[in-house]
């Protein structure tokens, strides 16, 4: 089966409601390709490697979290930007990108899906635009300390994590926000978290964790955001009768 580019855009917009968000770049259709879509490839970032993989997979559209265009970037089409755009345009592939709307969706978004992977159930939202989630283990238990939580996150995401904060404090209330959300740490503390999980850590957060007695775990920007794009693209593809394939381009960050 197939659908039109416009119908696919409307389906993504209806699900993710991008007009609700103040974002760092344009959400929706970023590069126009062929008008008929039969197959979607989803991924985290619109890198050259993902675009090449989508070409090999005979995709008509790519759906990502990190698109090509960001507020304040150099607008010249040179270097890496030229390479990515040239391949998209030469192959007539549509590029759809949703940033904060994909983080925030209550069931299919990056935060909801990371919580699902980690066995966490959200009870509330926090932070700017309610992007952060706070809750507890779905089995009603907790973690003995930050090392136990860190080991659980490492096992699920299959990558090392960085941990900071109290070593002996039991952990029950857990806040999380995927990607580069280290700036949400103080809001997570205010929301009553014993621990905060995000993708990245900056220098100040290690001190905050020690001084405030709240654990901080950085599990990787890419690793924390691998789950929203395939969840959304897969649901929309099923809704419209399209083929869908998630392609994970490895990234150590």
Keyword list:
253 residues; Udp-n-acetylmuramoylalanyl-d-glutamate--2,6- Diaminopimelate Ligase, Chain: A, domain 1; five-stranded mixed sheet; 13 strands
Shape: elongated
The CATH architecture category of the largest domain equals 3-Layer(aba) Sandwich
**Class of the largest domain, according to the CATH hierarchy?**
Alpha Beta
Q: What do the pLDDT scores average to? A: 97
Order of helices and strands: EHEEEHEHEHHEEHEEHEHEHHE
β-strand number: 13
Count the domains: 2
- For the record, give the distance between the C-alpha atoms at the N and C termini, rounded to a whole number: 37 Å
Structural class: alpha/beta
* Largest pleated sheet: 6 strands, mixed
Q: What value does the Rg take, in angstroms? A: 19 Å
Kindly report the CATH topology of the largest domain: Udp-n-acetylmuramoylalanyl-d-glutamate--2,6- Diaminopimelate Ligase, Chain: A, domain 1
Poorly predicted ranges (pLDDT <50, ≥5 residues)? Answer: none
Number of helices: 10
Strand order of the largest sheet: 7-8-10-11-12-9
Helix content: 25-40%
């Amino acid at each position: 089966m197939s659908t039109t580019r416009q119908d696919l855009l409307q389906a993504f917009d209806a699900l993710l409601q991008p007009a609700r968000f103040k974002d760092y770049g344009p959400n929706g259709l970023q590069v126009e390709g062929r008008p008929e879509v039969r197959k979607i490839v989803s991924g985290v970032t619109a890198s050259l490697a993902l675009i090449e993989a989508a070409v090999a997979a005979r995709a008509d559209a790519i759906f990502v979290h990190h698109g090509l265009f960001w507020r304040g970037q150099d607008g010249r089409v040179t270097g890496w930007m030229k390479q990515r755009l040239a391949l998209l345009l030469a192959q007539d592939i549509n590029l759809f990108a949703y940033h904060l709307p994909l983080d925030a969706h209550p069931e299919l978004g990056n935060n909801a899906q990371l919580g699902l992977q980690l066995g966490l159930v959200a009870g509330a939202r926090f932070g700017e635009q309610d992007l952060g989630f706070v809750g507890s283990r779905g089995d009603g238990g907790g973690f003995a300390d930050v090392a136990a939580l860190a080991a659980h996150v490492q096992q699920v995401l299959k990558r090392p994590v960085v941990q900071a904060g109290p070593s002996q404090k039991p952990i029950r209330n857990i806040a999380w926000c995927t990607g580069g959300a280290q700036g949400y740490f103080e809001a997570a503390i205010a929301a009553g978290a014993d621990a905060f999980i995000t993708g990245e850590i900056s220098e100040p957060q290690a001190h905050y964790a020690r001084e405030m007695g709240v654990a901080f775990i950085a599990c990787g920007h890419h690793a924390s955001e691998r789950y929203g794009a395939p969840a959304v693209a897969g649901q929309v593809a099923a809704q419209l009768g399209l083929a869908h394939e998630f392609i994970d381009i490895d990234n150590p960050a």
